[in-house]
Amino acid sequence: MSEEKVVKQISPDLKLLDLTLKNASAIQSSLMGEFTAEGSQEILVARPGGALEVYKIESSDDGDNDEDEDEEEETRVWLKMVMRVETKSIIRSIETVRLTGEKRDLIIVGSDSGNTSVMDFEGGQVKILHCPAFGKTGCRRGTPGQYLAKDPKGRAFMISAIEKRKLVYVLNRDSSGQSTIASPLEAHRSRTIVLDTVGVDNGYDNPIFASLEYQYPDEEDLLDGMSSIEDGVQKEIAYYELDLGLNHVSRRWAASTHPSACCLAPLHGGADGPSGVLIGGEDYIEYLHEGMTGDKIICAIPRRKLHPPNKGILITHLTVHKQKKSKFFALAQSELGDVYKVSIRLDPDDKTKVAGITASLLDTLPVANGLNVSKLGMLFIPAEFGDHALYQFERIDVEGDAPSCSSEDTIQAFKASGATEKDFFNTVNASKMAATFTPTTLKNLRSIYTMESLAPTTGVLIGELAGNEVSPQIYTLNGRGPRSSLRTLRHGAAVTELAVSDLPGTPGAVYTIKDISPDALEKKREVDKFIVVSFADATLVLKIGETVEEVGKESSFVTNAKTLACAALANGKIVQVHPSGVRLISDGKAQQWDCPGLKRIECASANESQVIVALAGGDLIYFELDPTTGVLVDKPPIDMGADVSCLDIGTLQAGRSRSMFAAVGFRDQSVKILSLEPNKLLTQRSSTALRARPHSVALQYMKSSGDNADDLVLTIGLDDGSSVRTGVDAITGSISTSPTGRFLGARPVSVSRITIDSTAATLLLSSRPWISRPDPKSGKNIMAPLSYAPLDHGCSFSSDAIKEGIVATSGTTLRILSVESQGSALGTEDEAFNSNKVDLRYTPRQMCLHAAGTQTDAKKLVLAVVESDYNDYGLEKKNAMGFDPTGSGKNKEDGDGMDIDSDEEKDSDEEDEDDKKARVTPIRGPVPDLPGHWGSCIRICDPSNGCSTLDCVELPENEAAFCCASVRFHSRGGEALLAVGTVSGMTLHPMKYKGSFIVIYRVLAGGKLHLLHRTPVEDGPVLALAHFQGRLLAGIGQTLRLYEIGKRQLLRKCELRGLPTMVKTLHGAGDRAYVGDLMHSMQFVRYDSATNKLILVANDRLPRPITCQELLDMNTIAVGDKFGNISVLRLPRGADARAVDMSGTRALWDSSRDNVTPRLETLCNYYVGEVVTGMTRSSLVAGGSESLIYVTATGRIGALVPFTSRENVEFYTELEACLRKDAPRYTGREPQAYRSYYAPIKNVIDGDLCEAYGKLSFEEQQKIAQQIDRNVGEVIKKLEDTRNALL
């Protein structure tokens, strides 16, 4: 299939632009604090790629809820992004610190820059307070930055390396109140490995930092007779004291701890608690503090019933939350996701001493990279893989009901055993004395908000497979284990369909009329009273109330003619414009103004006090509401000299009685701005020429980025399917000279005004509906499509039940829609993608597109997905063990659905469903007691039906599927068959397996899998398959083998042995195969049909560990490696002819030379910063040019766009060079050095750095624009046009 693809020859001067389509959604670490404003509960997250984001916990209770209906609604909570900072570095650690006397938190960042940064986010603006340098760049084990610990009183912080080095910085204030930082104080200790550091709370005494560390022996100790390194290693908890008087750091105290200890959490001290640290390890939680006497304080943790007794359970995170009145508790999470509440019991005689601890099961949650508890009783879980979640505590005092283990019971068992600490505190004894439980749905927590995460993304496929949409969809494989999913991403905002009703015909327009009655004006927001639907020769009037009902002749509307415009006037009357005249309606009575002579009105526009109509022939007549008489007064007609195709009179600003301008579009492909001032009525202020006839226009005031007055924006929809957006001077009426155009679809564009999030926006309707609105922070205009069927006409809609909606027509139906903007990326820096998710059973490994059905059946495109999980049982084994993945605790016999519900139960069904959905949690299956266990299946999905599952085949026990490919064997008449590569009994460390197979399936018309045969293979695991010249090409270990299909198994045709390590990726085109090696980059192989041999043509000299590849043309390929680089490699000219057959037919002296195989040339090289797991060459817009779309393990979607003109190359090269010098360096990392992490950046422009131009101050923008001989508007327009061409 891939060889039949026609590809253009890539230019030797290939230049690419890297753009981010969707930011990385994984979260490395997170913190709770008050960053931008006092009293605000905010979450700081560090994302891969060096991004810092601040989210505020928003609630529907924060707004004005004066209406009774609002009070009855359930409170909604969501996370709103307040700000985002791109640091262009690898963030290793983050910490918050609050200086003495401050009410907000500062952020400390440890990165790969060799600096530590102290930043202030006041008001959503970044201010770099300090950025001292201390070491080399890069993530080195001896360079501090991996761990950060703060003094709870904000006086100092410690930044540590993995090995040896620790630095302490003292924070203070100068005489002017500004923050100061002192030179670092060293706390180094040779041969020491640090596992974690925290700041110990000891009141206002000298700051103390606790370090979990161990010191490995030197060579002399090993020579003196030490049997192994483990014998001389003892993990310790060490206290380092900062003496503020002497300005010196010393190692104050140390004590040994459990050998598996890995994380720390400090307890509150001083007047608030006993101080000390909690230590989490395998199977145990321990408390340690200086000066402890008596028994050890350590307790086992409750265990799952199905967990094997010989397998330990590691505590991965600990956190301590302070409650009121000096109360506090701790939360601990295990590697299985179980969250425990750790209760600390104080000595009744001495509140500064801990008497014991108890670990009680709280709930089972996704495995997290942190535990963040807010003062509002919420818990934020930044998931390691899958969606992040915000939970509400419903109960925290669980000690009496939940399975618990106390330190007293643990110590009592220890004393009774008579063993030593080293022999007793192990996994076997922990499993004997720990309480057991079965994971269930959430009991003490409730999910209230989910933040979507695509991490990890393991594969991508792009195409219009839904069958009824214009733009292609992006299909991605996401998640791990029980949180795995197949997602369908569409560029655009999600839409909720609230109502659909049939109409008696095909409408020509739809309008809404505001309710300006006294009762409506008392409300704090505007609502609509009527929906007016216009047909070719009739008008339908619908009244809005609790229901939408049709209104007859009593409405006084003209219903036997189409409506061209209608509006509610300021005095309570309604104006309707129809082809014969203008009708003024008041209290069921109507006044009519008729057109002069035989002329007809062709188009019209109206607002609260003004009406303008265009007659046939180009005459314009203007009406204005007389405030004394309450009637519309017409002005003399003015001939414009050309036929009018569309017009708009604009909206009234607050405090104004009239709109100052009207926009009029003419059939001569021009738009003019006309004055509506009384002394300059309908005089031209400015005009602009267009490339097509205007179909619709809209004048609208939109919020600007600053505190200035709103900007007046003119939006024009053209007949050729494109839109033009430009600014209009609100005083002079002159049109900006830098309009922004964008192609929207194949139909003429209809433009109307709507409202989203209480701000003005524009609805543009073509082949797809689009939303245009400004970003209030950056001022940049955001355009995103709506993921909905094509609409013909639309306008804004508001009612008591629907605050902000859209009423639109599609065909012969009327629809009421709502744009889901809360929590989405619409109108923010991140492009809006909405997704539909289909849950999978195991971790998805690969997917391919397949044509289902036999030769006689109708073909249907389906998606084949192979899934497998290591260290997991198959579905049958889990069911036999009694494992319940839902955690509902119900037997299958209880779910027969035969019970009869009472009336009360029926009324509460909807609430029960919402509550059940909020309590669903992923539960990991039982852990096998021995290595080599796998769970795997093959799934067939239907992309035309929301990727629903057509068939799912579970593989035999301990057999795992890793790759799949759709193959058309010529010997079977070109029938599409599904080939799957599987491995049985495989262990990863060390790499061993029992058998390897290639399984061939037929996919029948209904999507069912039919097994043809299984072929055992030798020489290694099968990790890559590809269709090649009507045969199957397989990568088996170090061997590349070509197969033909037989009746009982596959038949070998030829093979190439001796590839470097293991074949990981595979492509075929023409007579060439492109082989990606697990450690040694790319190999180009040619198949010689005359001799039936595979010949190595060329390889890459750099040892890249390939993760994915995509063919650009016959000689060029793009690859991604596991270090986060993307490279474009090319076969040198004439290299194919010089290829040497290494099989022995050439002379020995030829094949033994090092340079006998030609080397691939590197055209481009670029460091993404995240592991690229999939890439494909595709267009995201129907009919658009192709780009290289890639996905990363952290959920990022990016695009490498090829430049098509030298002008664009020069513009972006100059802009990037300027921004490398002038863009802020938040962590001190140089942008070019970051993008050249492993190899120098080559022929790729950092588009994210170029787009940072829009976030600079106007003075900085002007300075850079002058350096590249352009103005600010031209630079911003160029940036927008590049992104618009991609999406």
Automatic annotation (TrEMBL):
Residues 936-1254 form the RSE1/DDB1/CPSF1 C-terminal domain. Gene3D superfamilies: YVTN repeat-like/Quinoprotein amine dehydrogenase. GO terms for biological process: mRNA processing; RNA splicing. Residues 896-914 have a biased composition (Acidic residues). It is found in: Nucleus. It holds the Pfam family Beta-prop_RSE1_1st. GO terms for cellular component: spliceosomal complex. Keywords: mRNA processing, mRNA splicing, Nucleus, Spliceosome. Residues 877-925 are annotated as: Disordered. Residues 26-397 form the RSE1/DDB1/CPSF1 first beta-propeller domain. It comes from the Eukaryota. One of its GO terms (molecular function) is nucleic acid binding. This is DNA damage-binding protein 1. It comes from Chaetoceros tenuissimus. The lineage of its organism: Eukaryota, Sar, Stramenopiles, Ochrophyta, Bacillariophyta.
